[in-house]
Every structure is written in C-alpha cells, then in structure tokens.
Amino acid sequence: MISANAKGLNNVSIGAMTRTVLILLSPTPLRQPLPIEETDLPGLRQFSLDHSLFMLLYSRMKACQQQFPGEPASRAFIDNEKAVYLKGVSISMKQEAVEQEVSRLLRIKGVPSVVIKGNALARDLYGDANCRSSSDIDLLVRLEDAACSDMALRGAGYVCDVSVPFGYCIYRLHHAGYYHPSNGQRLELHWLFAFPLFFSLDSADIWRGVEWADSCAGRLTPQTTIIMLLIHHHSHSFRELKILVDILWALHKYDGAMDWVKLADRLKEIGLAKTTIISLHQLETLWPEEASGLRSVKLLKQRMKELNCACPQSLLSYFRMDADQTVRHSVYRERLVARFALDGWRRMLRSFLTVLVPIPEAIRALYNDQRSWTLPVNYLRYISWRVRDWIK
Questions:
Q1: Distance CA 186, CA 137 (A)
Q2: What is the pLDDT of residues 252-269, one digit of tens each?
Q3: Strand 186-190 relative to strand 137-141: parallel, antiparallel, unpaired?
Q4: Predicted model pTM
Q5: DSSP letters of 93-149?
C-alpha cells in the first residue's frame, strides 16, 4: 500500500516511522494511502515536534484524510492532535498581528521592511500560513536603516537581548534579537542573511531581490527566497530538517518557473556552491525519487559541474542528514566544520580569522573608542573576552 514515491527511501538507513514522516512532509501528492497504524501515531507526533514540523505534518495528514477518507489512523491523528494544532494556529495569528504592527511602526519612521521566514514563507511555499511554526518573527530591513529600526523597536517597548552596543552588531553580526516583556513575543531584526564576509551578498544585493505589492507589502523574489534558505541552512550547520523541507518545497514550487542555470551562476558568485551541493545531496538522500524528478535539482547539479564546483566527499559524508537524530555533535564543532563548506580557501581562512580579529570598525563600536592608538589595546581586550567566554 505504500505509494510509489516512497520506494526509493527503502535504501536509506533510517527507521520505518521516519520514512513515513518524510513521505508525508514531501510536496509530492500521495498516489496511495500510507499503511499507518494507530500505534505509529505517538512516534509521528514526537518526531514532528522534535523537528518543529508538527504544523506541516498535521496539515498533510488532514489533506491525506480528505484524499483517502477510509484511513482510520489519519482520522485519529487529526482528532487527537487538533488542540495542539489550534494552539499553533493561535501563535501564528498572534505573530502575524505583531508583524503587521511592527511593519507599520517602521513604515511611519520611513523604514521599509519585509517579513522573511515564518508566516510569510509558509504562505509562499506551502500555500498556508498555518502549516509552518516559528519561534520568532524575522524582519528584514536595509543596512542603512538598521540603527533607526533598533531605536524604533526599543521605543515600542522591545528589549534587545544582546549586551553589546548595537553598532558592534552592525559590523559583526547579521541580525539582532529582541523580545517584548508584556507578551514575550520574540523578534529578529535582519540586515543580512549571514555573518558579514561569509558570502558575497550585501544588503543592497538582497534588496534588489525584493518585490512590492500594491498594499506596500514586500516579499522576497523566488530566487532570493532560495538563496536565503540555502544561507539559513548553512548557518544552522546543515542539521535542521525543517530548513531542508523548506528547500525541497521551494525547489518543487518553482521547478518550472525559474531559470535554474542563471540561479546556479548566481549561487557560485555569492559563494554558495558547496552549500548548494551539500543541500542537494541531503535531498537526494532523504527524498531520492522526488529529488531525481525535479528539473531544478538536475539543472543545478549539472550547472555546478559545468562551473567546476565540487565539494569534498568528507564534507558530504559529515553533513549527511541524520533524520533520526542518532548522532549529535556540539554546536561549536558543527559551526567550526560548517566553515569548511564556505567556497574558497580565502573565504574560509577569513571566516576563522574574524572570530578573534574582527574588522576595526567593530572594535571601535564595541568599546565606543574611535582613537587609533588605543585600537591594539582594545583588540587585546576583545581577544581576552572571547577566550574567557569559550573557556566557561
């Protein structure tokens, strides 16, 4: 009774329950009902919660129930987990209200903003704002508007959760996190997609990939959405199944509506060749039949090969997606190894050096000291601070 799009997964070293979940999370329509027993439901539930994919799994189970109404297990899952799903919907609706409120606040200050990830991404990729949960709101602003946006958020009662000066964040990081004490709502203000110098993509490049509707609501173009997702996957050391599912759905949605050769060229320019190859390899491992049937995957792989882009087998093996989460490495180790997935030795070396030796503007902003003669002393203070922080 397993649908044909599940057969390729039999060669993957993962559990039967995980194979079932992966089939349900795939954008490919089921051709036959899945043999799910009620005894499988607790495992499905826990897996989806562990990977923050419960909302999508519930939506897919509901769609399968409409397609195969005689399946009792999916009916039981829908009935038993409705309260959990509705709680997620409630959180999603509150986040969307806050998104609109904050966007309006910034617009009054003359600052354009775009909601990325979360509800906006769910609506774009999945066609349903309530099928993708998010722990916070991600808002994109221009680099030159970041300081003004920070002041506007603080004025509205938001508290920045970093203890360093905001100017340091501008030069050293790609976003700043906030929370609102009255409702606990968390928000991330982005001006880049990743740490500066990791990729050749600045704020102006990102904003050239924003399109606007008549309602003054901005959204990322399909190409920029895929670029963002690939960078996000790298930022999480290629370990977040949720992000990989987003990438799969994006490739599926835009499969016949994008110049994939042009995108591959752009990915190489940005420095995302290895990241793309690793991500595609993960997709082919977990969803072999779906990935092999996508024009996007074929063209991206083919163009990367034509451009002489390659990724060491050691990295492909290290970042093989462990959907069952049988192996867990330390966060610091994962981030360290992920830097070897940056394109080119120069970029990799620079990523390591800037950990202890950031650009002078960052040091000046951190210590609020513009004097050149104190810069070496402040660098020593910075290095000492970072080393003490790592030893703790």
A1: 6
A2: 999 999 999 999 999 999
A3: parallel
A4: 0.93
A5: HHHHHHHHHHHHHHHHTT--EEEESHHHHHHHHTS-TTSS--SSEEEEE-GGGHHHH
